[in-house]
Amino acid sequence: MKVYIVCNYDGNVGVFFEESAALKKYKEIEFQDNGAAIQVWLNNQLLMQDSIYDKI
Asked: What domain of life does the native source organism fall in (predicted)?
């Protein structure tokens, strides 16, 4: 199962199991705080960690 962790630079974090929900939150944080990060995990392995998410 993929898990998406979205956060801003103040440490506020959201955990999502659906990519669409994670992207929505990422866009909200990016718009409000001018900085967001995302991690994508699969079976306890980090697949991606980037401050700029490619699908946006």
From this structure: Bacteria
56: tokens are 């946006």
The Cα 45–Cα 36 span in angstroms is: 21
Task: State the residue for tokens 């990519």.
Answer: 19
User: What are the backbone dihedrals phi and psi of residue 22, each rounded to the nearest 5 degrees, phi first?
Assistant: -65, -40
Q: Please give the model's pTM, rounded to 2 decimal places.
A: 0.77
Rounded to 5 degrees, what are φ and ψ at 32?
-75, -45
Amino acid, single-letter form, for residue 40: V
Nearest Cα residue to 53 out of 11, 32, 28, 45: 28
Q: What confidence tens digit (pLDDT) does each residue in 33-53 have?
A: 667 888 999 999 999 887 655
